[in-house]
Amino acid sequence: IKNLRNHKLIGFTVVSSNLFFTALLSLMLRLENKEIKIIYGGPQTTLSGNTSEIVLKAGLADMIVSGEAEEILPEVIKNIDDDSRWISKNPVIYGIEPDIGTLPDPDFSVFELKKYRPLRLPVYASRGCVFKCGFCTYHRLGSYRLRKPGLVADSINRLADRYNANNFIFSDSTLNISQQWLDKFCLLYTSDAADE
């Protein structure tokens, strides 16, 4: 908490399994710094209007980002001090689906990666899901989109160089939907690795 209390803005990705911890951490941050702005986003707040309503009424969050945040969050951060523009008008804002082929590589520079051993960096090749399984809500988070195989291979190579990493975990829920995509990715990635 002491390392976070002097920040102007803290954002949390909320899933059902971390909701209680996130609420507790938010409360602790509020006790340390009443001026801090707290934003919740992620599947739990996107899929559950009740969660959003409760955390806003309890004062645990100032704003909820529902949906994908890449397009809207930079604007929110730029104007975070202007409460009249965002928080007082409507504390729930809705993101739009970005073209995932244009998103930058994840930035892990704020993490002390030397503490993570073995170091495994997450990689996404897609978002959404084509299936509508009754036990899963992933398909409700957005349409299914798949990055081009070459973009994913290039991204892994850049992350490997930037962070001296050689272990990557695909965080996609359904990486193997397209066997053709997977074959092409493997061919591109292994040929890139062979070139080094």
Protein model, in words:
The chain is of the alpha/beta class. Helix content is 34%, strand content 14%. It is built from 6 helices and 8 strands; from the N terminus they run E-H-E-H-H-E-H-E-E-E-E-H-E-H. The protein has helices at 19-32, 43-47, 49-57, 73-78, 149-163, 179-195; strands spanning 9-13, 37-41, 63-66, 92-94, 121-123, 126-127, 145-146, 168-170. Strands 1-2-3-4 form a 4-stranded parallel sheet. Strands 5-8 form a two-stranded parallel sheet. Strands 6-7 form a two-stranded antiparallel sheet. Strand 3, helix 4 (73-78) and strand 4 form a beta-alpha-beta unit. The longest helix has 17 residues, at 179-195. The protein is globular, with a radius of gyration of 19 Å.
Provide the fold topology.
Elements: E1 9-13, H1 19-32, E2 37-41, H2 43-47, H3 49-57, E3 63-66, H4 73-78, E4 92-94, E5 121-123, E6 126-127, E7 145-146, H5 149-163, E8 168-170, H6 179-195
Parallel strand pairs: 1-2, 2-3, 3-4, 5-8
Antiparallel strand pairs: 6-7
